[in-house]
Specification:
- This protein is an alpha/beta fold and 327 residues long.
- It folds into two domains: 255 residues, no CATH class; 52 residues, no CATH class.
- Strands 3-4-5 form a three-stranded parallel β-sheet.
- Strand 1 and strand 2 form a beta hairpin.
- The longest helix is centred in the C-terminal third of the chain and has 23 residues.
- The mean pLDDT is 92.
């Protein structure tokens, strides 16, 4: 068993499988890569401004320590993120309480997975029991979304968001952690486990503004899958499995302005040429984004975000899905 670490190193991903890092950086809405969407890294020079894409060579090699989880950032870096983007991570024990409320509603009883203590919890050791009218398969496929997800502490709980300490797999409380625990308790073959673990990953969604957090969240989901696979089978997932799960995650954890449903900062002024009043002269005019001007999320000229409807096997515009206008 490999050692589980808080900070997943991009250099290690690159050395293991360069294609995997490419997948984790992909933006499926634009067909390009996710962008920084913050000027926190601009001091590093060309390619690090807010609207620049995050490219593999910018975060590997000598820059391999550039992107770090919040618990490993300096106090000054944390304060800057709080000031600029109101970035404050929820303590893991509160994530657990809120996830327990979600499961209480689904199961129809309290504490199916763990018992809460004073800013703590203790996982139940017995196999999870399901209501008479529901099965473990229903639970695995139930859709869950974490908005403005940061590093995705509600979805996966590899480490404590305050202390930065690794949380043992048996004590994890994320929504995907719970699904993978259920899969591990019920799947009887390796093939069945992988199928339903993949279904669990397909059911988990989250969006975030800042590019470094998008990457961290994607890495956390991917390596949570890896942790449970190793615990179950005592070996690493295959390269093919890793890439497939990473591809699903690249669709399900996406970069978005949560108020506009577009890629951050993608709205823009549009130019038009009009004939002038005198002598046929042409005049250039600039027009602001209609959606921004009217606060209408359906009329932005930025790049709208798409996610994958895995049941239907097609991509859908998130704005339409959110507004119930999916076609």
């Amino acid at each position: 068993m490999r050692e589980i670490k808080v900070d997943i190193k991009e250099n290690e991903i690159l050395n293991s499988d360069p294609k995997l890092l490419e997948i984790l950086l992909k933006d499926n809405s634009s067909g390009k890569n996710i962008i920084w969407a913050t000027n926190d890294y601009a001091s590093n020079g060309e390619g690090f401004s807010a609207d620049d894409q995050i490219l593999p060579d910018l975060i590997t090699g000598k820059n391999g320590e550039l992107i770090k989880p919040r618990t490993e950032k300096t106090k000054e870096e944390k304060l800057a993120r709080i000031r600029d983007k109101a970035e404050v991570f929820t303590p893991s024990w509160i994530c657990n309480q809120m996830n327990n409320l979600v499961d209480e509603a689904w199961f129809g009883r309290k504490n199916p997975f763990n018992v809460e203590g004073d800013k703590s919890w203790k996982a139940k050791r017995d196999k999870i029991r399901f209501p008479k009218d529901k099965t473990w398969l229903d639970y695995v496929r139930t859709t869950r979304l974490e908005i403005t997800c940061g590093e995705a502490p509600f979805l996966v709980s590899r480490y404590d968001t305050v202390s930065g300490e690794i949380i043992p797999i048996k004590e994890r409380i994320g929504l995907l952690d719970r699904k993978l625990r259920v899969v591990s308790e019920n799947a009887t073959t390796q093939k069945q486990w992988y199928f339903w673990a993949k279904e669990a990953v397909k059911s988990i969604y989250g969006f975030e503004w800042q590019g470094d957090n998008v990457l961290l969240a994607r890495e956390n989901l991917l390596f949570t899958f890896c942790d449970y696979h190793e615990k179950k089978f005592r070996r690493y997932p295959s390269k093919e499995q890793f890439r497939r799960i990473a591809d699903i995650i690249s669709w399900n954890i996406w970069q978005m302005d949560g108020l506009k449903f577009v890629i951050p900062n993608s709205c823009h002024e549009e130019r038009s040429i009009q004939s002038g009043f005198f002598f046929g002269a042409e005049e250039e005019k600039l027009h602001p984004c209609e959606g921004c001007e009217k606060n209408d999320p359906n009329k932005h000229n930025g790049t709208y975000c798409y996610i994958m409807d895995w049941k239907e096997g097609k991509k859908v515009k998130f704005a339409d899905s959110f507004n119930g206008r999916q076609k």
